[in-house]
């Protein structure tokens, strides 16, 4: 609804209320009402709150620099019914977007990024070298426990809570030998492996004054992939029935808008080789600064939002690149899940795949982007390559669960944290917490070097 995107919440609410007079609301109008509530949760700061949050990082903050950063648009803001509200993560994003602000920080510290996204490293070389050899691929065996815990009394005692936790599907050459180990409050009901957003499903009654925990544990082997593409071999693809869905628009997040066409033309120029076009687009999206994003369910079009805002997180960058690739006749699709490391780093993450003939489907991770370092063969590792430190939960976005949810979802695009509901409605992120624990295991003998 344009009124919601434009911040005219009071007017939108009046129209929704009028539409519901004498009967129930349509699902779309009910969701627009919920979307306004979610937007208010994301844009939680007024100007004084924003200033106070920045001052905690810069105690001697000057008013002139604060105003200059605000005028430059470095703080994500939205006018809601005439009042300027600021995104709750805007103070954190400032230090990602402004070198000047980073230099003013009282206690400078690096961002806790994945070790894999900083520069070329031994693992990238390992994946490349293993892929070029006749031996087994670079692989990691991992045991994962993921949990979702509903807060005490978020649901009336005795009512049944339904929960969906993400669960991986076997993908040949990417993640294999998946073994379910257990769950809480018991073994889950697994969605079929054909489900593109696969889940482990649970039910459990709420108890007064007690949190309600759901968890699933499993092991799997994750394999790194790498293809060194020779641009001279790459030819345009034909829109076969199998590839056609990955060449077309898909409202609301993949739309060939005028702004998207203009940006594409500026980046691609007169290039006609599909790989070189993909590389130009990959590099252009990689140049968009990373910043923490509001909840995806509140954004009308993630790809367009990234293009307009000039900053984006992994999912927004990925959908922007998918849109641009499809616009240029290069099939592209979504994948997402969780990344981790040999140390203590883990996080939700989105990436994708593109199709280049004659190579077939190749992974791409534009958020990790170009890798600085001395080896030119690794600079574009993530355009045709993938590390072995990520588990994929989603082979598409916004797909139905098995079993289906009754109420609308907290996350309308991804499934990484989980979902929960009861007869009275959906349970949003402010009503439950989540966790992801992992342990690297010894590899089976046949997967060692």
Short description:
The chain is of the alpha+beta class. It has 13 helices and 17 strands. It folds into two domains: 2-104, no CATH class; 120-449, C8orf32 fold, CATH 3.10.620.30.
Distance linking N and C termini: 55 Å
What is the top-level CATH class of the largest domain?
Answer: Alpha Beta
Provide the CATH topology of the largest domain: C8orf32 fold
User: Any idea what the CATH architecture of the largest domain is?
Assistant: Roll
Mean pLDDT: 96
Shape: globular
Order of neighbouring strands in the sheet with most strands: 6-7-4-15-16
Q: What is the string of helix and strand elements?
A: HHHHHEEHHHEEEEEEEHHHHEEEHEEEEE
**For the CA atoms, what is the radius of gyration?**
23 Å
Which percent band covers the strand fraction?
A: 15-25%
Largest pleated sheet = 5 strands, antiparallel
Count of separate DSSP helical elements: 13
Structural class: alpha+beta
Weakly predicted, low-confidence segments: none
- Percent of residues in helices comes to 25-40%
Domain count, please report it: 2
Annotation, overall tally of beta strands? 17
